[in-house]
Request: fold
Amino acid sequence: MNEQKMNRNIRRFTFFALVLSVAFLIGGVVLSGLLKSAESKNIERELINKTNLYKTQIVRQFDADIQTLNTVKSFINFDKSVASDTILRGLNESNNSNKFIRMSLFYQDQTVYHATLNEEIKKKILAT
Reply:
């Protein structure tokens, strides 16, 4: 009788150990799936954030490039070697209509005109 009781206890212990092992296995599989899903969502969110950041940077760069091109465009027609009132007015108006703090106009005779935001145009002759 003692042997039967011992066999029954061994079978119970084996059954509970098996059930506990299966429960741990199922719990591990479920937890692994949840962690994988969370990681996937986190990576997707990070990619969306980085994409939006890059998009914003590209748009800002385009805006800056267009501003530069518009400023340069206003001087394309001026190919004179001496500064005229029209060119200087254009330089001043261009400087006031963009985000540049200072714009300068250089001539081959070493004359430089600086248009600083909210200031008069200053003439400077460079030393050779």
